[in-house]
């Protein structure tokens, strides 16, 4: 008997061919049963990536002719090197195929072993394919499945033989995948066929690696009651829909995998992904990163659009002309109203306190951790073999991005000390500042006023490094930004807005950027500050960037906005919160409307990728907003607005600005705030709703429901373990390895090398310490590096070169191990696990909807 079974991605469909007198095609779940049909037809609601073309010539009365069609299909499967996998109960597994010829009693023992409902698939074939030759077997290999070092030399040779076999197999699979991608993901006109009658397209999911999977059966015997599961699933889907709405509104990214599941439950759902001009094959891509050989500041200036821009209740509106202003008819740019935002914020906060939801999410997170441990236990050797089979690529020469870095502290303390000493020797007579009486002072006079010389300076005297005294003392940490405890030195060396227009700060950052360019594989996203005290801050920052040529192909900038309105108000710098918003956003709208109004800013904005919100999150505040909260024009209190208030008005204005800039073909901005380092968990709820990705996220470990939502939405989290170790959380308690194991999108970043690092390569220092303390494997490290590139704001063409031309695709189709050094096994495991979790949740919601329909 001939048997061919398939497990598809979404619809859990199987077909079986029995050759004798009749042909029977059985599609489980959503598909139909067909007998003696000549065409394999797609069900309207199924998602079958394969079909048989030109099958009408087959004789419906002759089963052998029909079997010939399916033999052609199997030949394609065999060429795609799929391996063996049991059907299982996993409803969303990537396509796998089984082919076996049954005799009376043969192959009876080839089934996958099952223990307490957990089937470990692929074990038999792995042992059969990769076991050493019979001559090299150990004497105890048959009696015990473990190794006893009776003969150490033979033991080592046995292991090396297995590794060579695994590496050669991985190399063969890699070459086949390369040839597949070089043809654009499809077979050629003469490939895998005997004649012109049968041609098949290879789906992008075909090259799924063979590895040992763990599937759980018996979903109907779950300890949680059906009502609790339905309630939890409904809450989770509602929260995901809220985030998707805010991301679509602000033109930020949302994972396509989750969006497809939302589409399955929302009839009126439409989500447009960011469209890129992709090059379809690897052959179309250059070997090196696209570089800008021309002047990076040479940018076109379009004429003024003559739009009228004015704030309304804290959010800038765009009007066509004066008549539209009088009629109060602004352009229809969508943004969330304050009342809607408060309602959604309170709704998600109430979800986080729901008992059944917390229990459900906690169990799912524990399951994800355990599943990852089993995956590592079963497939670690295969992942390592896949990495060894890739030439030239290892952890040192894959792209890494420091996704959370402050420009004022982007250098280490020794670098700053060398720069200060060199500047004193070469430019001691340069006028750098004014004293309290307004008298001009040279650099030499500044140090003479402190009774210091270049010879006296040491790293210890600078006193910029965080120590045990900064733990839970954010005020002391901020004081570390002042070298030798002198704010005057910070103003001279670490500010862009000073008497010398940020000259020294520009030189230091350029030296750091040069080090990154020399390393080639390290990149950074430093934060530059806009305080919102005056309207001309943007012009000064942009003039600094253009004058000192702050462009680097390894650097993209974010703008951080400190939440310091209470200080400005108490010092009578600002009158109300609306003035703060005007200083931050009005120049951006003006330069978008008329580039000639701020020419340097128009040039500099092309290298700004997003906005950050920074300050001490542990300050006491009321985390929730009331519906009667004051609008910005009426906020005249010296009390600082809460975190959620800052986030809303930043997000709303960015949303309108993004719509205006995208209409004009300009780059848009994302929102990536500091979130969840300390303070209440409501900060993380704001981040879930408004931010494309966040920095820190430590408090997620205390809110399982919110952590599970961050996993389902694949929200990036830039974590800084060394920074947290000095400020809020000891290193061994950091949740980064737990987040990584569960499948959250996390990256390692440095935060402040000036305060926390010692070496010239602070990002590599972070990776090396993490690898030692948490025993991260090479695959783990490369996965973290890949995540850092994915969540970064570098251009799409850069990411295509760093990760592969198809990196935006889901699952294994989006991975290129020759560039990321992340094995397809790990990518497939992550993707299949996410699909399984989303499937379980949305199936529960579907059941609720169907039951409610039947009740009425």
TrEMBL record:
- Top-level lineage group: Eukaryota
UniProt pathway annotation = Purine metabolism; IMP biosynthesis via salvage pathway; IMP from AMP: step 1/1
Q: Which reaction does it catalyse?
A: AMP + H2O + H(+) = IMP + NH4(+)
MF annotations from Gene Ontology: AMP deaminase activity; metal ion binding
Is Zinc among the key words of this record?
yes
Q: What is its EC number?
A: 3.5.4.6
Species the sequence originates in: Parthenolecanium corni
The name of this protein is AMP deaminase
Family, similarity comment: Belongs to the metallo-dependent hydrolases superfamily. Adenosine and AMP deaminases family.
